């Protein structure tokens, strides 16, 4: 063998060995990838414990509160992983936002909403479901809140794992209810509020679905099915954007800004109308410029809804942060206050470090675990485009306003997912209606078979059943788990 042949053979062997090492590295990287997010989540929880230690200093019960703060961080991570998908899923599914862009926008606006308007709901979560004085001693109340916090976090984590968007508010309420019953019996519970929450299982998705389907019908009738789609879009898209601006202004005043400047629903509606008219007029020349040169096709119209959809997703995230941060830190705030004062209080004051845990936890949970539910909500229930996703986002805001006016408690999760169902089922009905008309002009032997028509469904029924079942069992599941946890913890007291 010549020297050149030996060198070539040696290089071939080296390349094969390096290839094996490269394959092993890729395999190791693939194996380790599922552990990256949980590992980073664990690091965040450890940092929360350090923040709590620094904030509390040396007190008699500081170690206990640090442990509870860790539970609160765990719950905040799960809220970010599950609940925020309802705001960002439609925009991502419609390709108006990338996954990275959605996570960045949601993180900023969720945190802003939590810090600016998040304190108001905490007192309701902490003291509105059970009467603290019915617990006998503050110590038992504290353990009930610990059980509620941990049980709801475990349930939301499980729901995220199976791919079901559930109401974190219902999870926390179920946890508080279960611990309250285990501690003080059925009389400790405000059954009127529990009944209203149960009614919202039906009211929330039905309202969201009907309103979203109504908006989609309007867009199709006034723009999509018109001979000159661009002219119709120039006329109606500014109106729709103005309506969206007014609706979200009203929504934010009612749900996100009430701590800063509370207004009645009538005043909020007047402010919303004024803002909507101004924005609508400003959008007339903008839409005209955007529509110049566009072809008379449905694809062209979708472009005009992209930016409004991104703005609506950001505003929904702000309002969500203002409201749902209470699910993570409401029980924690109650525990901190009772532990420090040794007595019950109707109003719970929230230390800055407690609110920080909730705000950052939601953002970190969204970043680490949120993409799974965002994809499911955005693309796996039914196919969304910017127009359909716009209807979903607008429906969420309108439904909350209507429910506030009627005095009905509703779930933002149920509204958003119900709106997606509504859009999908409306598309099925509309497609079937148009197909029936088209088939009348076709000879009988050339018509589509009924089996094939049934197969072409636009909403995945498996997701409807999974999500519906998860909604129904959320309250009893967290209630039972919380009661069991409380009974276990109460043995430590005795």
TrEMBL record:
The keyword Transmembrane helix appears for this protein: yes
Keyword Transcription: no
Stored InterPro entries: Phos_transporter
Cellular component GO terms held in the UniProt record: membrane
UniProt topology in membrane: Multi-pass membrane protein
GO biological process: phosphate ion transmembrane transport
Signal sequence residues: none
Subcellular localization: Membrane
Keywords, in A-Z order: Membrane, Phosphate transport, Transmembrane, Transmembrane helix, Transport
Pfam families in UniProt: PHO4
Example of a GO MF term: phosphate transmembrane transporter activity
Coiled-coil residue spans: none
Transmembrane segments annotated in the record for this chain: 35-56, 62-80, 92-116, 140-160, 172-192, 198-219, 231-254, 260-282, 303-322, 350-369, 389-406, 412-429, 464-489
Domain of life of the native organism: Bacteria
Stated family: Belongs to the inorganic phosphate transporter (PiT) (TC 2.A.20) family.
The protein's name: Phosphate transporter
Source organism: Paenochrobactrum gallinarii
Taxonomic classification: Bacteria, Pseudomonadati, Pseudomonadota, Alphaproteobacteria, Hyphomicrobiales
């Amino acid at each position: 063998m010549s020297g050149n042949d030996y060198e070539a053979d040696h290089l071939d062997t080296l390349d094969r060995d390096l290839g094996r090492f490269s394959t092993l590295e890729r395999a190791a990287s693939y194996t380790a990838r599922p552990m990256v997010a949980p590992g980073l989540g664990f690091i965040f929880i450890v940092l929360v414990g350090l923040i709590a230690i620094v904030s509390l200093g040396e007190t008699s019960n500081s170690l206990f509160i640090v442990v509870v703060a860790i539970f609160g961080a765990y719950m905040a991570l799960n809220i970010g992983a599950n609940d925020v998908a309802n705001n960002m899923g439609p925009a991502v599914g419609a390709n108006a936002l990338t996954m990275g862009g959605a996570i960045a926008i949601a993180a900023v606006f969720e945190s802003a909403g939590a810090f600016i308007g998040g304190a108001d709901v905490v007192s309701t979560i902490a003291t509105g479901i059970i009467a603290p004085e019915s617990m006998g001693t503050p110590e038992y109340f504290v353990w009930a809140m610990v059980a509620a916090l941990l049980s709801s976090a475990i349930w939301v984590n499980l729901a995220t794992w199976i791919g079901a968007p559930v109401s974190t508010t219902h999870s926390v309420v179920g946890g508080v209810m279960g611990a309250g019953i285990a501690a003080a019996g059925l009389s400790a519970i405000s059954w009127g509020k529990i009944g209203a929450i149960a009614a919202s299982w039906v009211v929330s998705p039905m309202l969201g679905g009907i309103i979203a389907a109504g908006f989609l019908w309007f867009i199709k009738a006034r723009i999509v099915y018109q001979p000159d789609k661009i002219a119709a879009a120039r006329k109606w898209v500014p109106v729709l954007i103005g309506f969206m601006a007014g609706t979200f202004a009203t929504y934010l005043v009612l749900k996100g800004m009430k701590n800063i400047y509370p207004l009645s629903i009538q005043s909020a509606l007047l402010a919303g109308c004024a803002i909507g008219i101004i924005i609508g007029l400003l959008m007339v020349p903008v839409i005209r410029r955007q529509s110049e040169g566009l072809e008379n096709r449905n694809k062209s119209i979708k472009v005009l809804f992209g930016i409004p959809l991104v703005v609506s997703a950001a505003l929904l995230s702000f309002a969500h942060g203002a409201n749902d941060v209470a699910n993570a830190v409401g029980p924690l705030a109650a525990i901190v206050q009772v532990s420090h004062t040794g007595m019950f209080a109707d109003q719970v004051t929230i230390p800055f470090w407690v609110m920080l845990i909730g705000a950052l936890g939601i953002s970190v949970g969204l970043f680490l675990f949120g993409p799974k539910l965002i994809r499911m909500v955005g693309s796996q229930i039914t196919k969304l485009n910017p127009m359909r996703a716009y209807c979903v986002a607008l429906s969420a805001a309108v439904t909350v306003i209507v429910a506030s006016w009627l005095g009905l408690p509703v779930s933002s999760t149920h509204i958003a997912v119900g709106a997606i169902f509504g859009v999908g089922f409306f598309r099925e009905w509309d497609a079937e209606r148009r197909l029936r008309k088209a088939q009348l002009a076709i000879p009988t032997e050339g018509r589509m078979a009924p089996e094939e028509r049934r197969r072409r469904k636009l909403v995945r029924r498996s997701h409807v059943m999974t999500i519906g079942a998860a909604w129904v069992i959320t309250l009893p599941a967290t209630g039972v788990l919380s009661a069991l946890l409380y009974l276990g913890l109460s043995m430590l007291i005795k």
